[in-house]
Specification:
globular, 5% strand, 2 strands, mainly alpha, two-stranded antiparallel sheet
Length: 177
Amino acid sequence: MVGNIILYFVVALAMVIFSVMAVTSKKILRSATYLLFVLIGAAIFYFQLGYEFLGAIQIAVYAGGIMVLFVFAILLTHKPNANAEPVTSYRRVAGVIASVVGCGLLLWAMFTMPMLSTADGVRSLSQALADGPDISMKMIGQAFTGTDKYQYLLPFEAVSVLLLACIIGGVTVARKR
């Protein structure tokens, strides 16, 4: 049990460090590599929770397939060894403000939006946490991967279609060069 807690904090710290490095690196291929480490860290969390299939899918699809697509798109649209242009200070401040506002909105939505279907009806995550320990990992998993009302599989798939459209756009732009 103590080993799992230590592993959790080590992987969480590594994910935070690699996330920051991914968005602050001046070389875009290094950023993609740091993102790969973050995705592998997420897979470790799945394995730690006992979701071996989901962890294997995380490694195969995201750490494998999606990262290959990212690197392919990067190599088609950028010179691999070129440094990124420095971001001006006003854009950096605007980016930090947008990130803080986005995180705040995400936390607000996560804790107030109806999410979990129980025998008592649909509850938000904050209501479920306040009511007691009757919330399970299975309920959270069904909320995120279900197709019923207040479940989030459709938005997840819409994001993957958006990602595919971005990659096709990158290939199209690279061909016109």
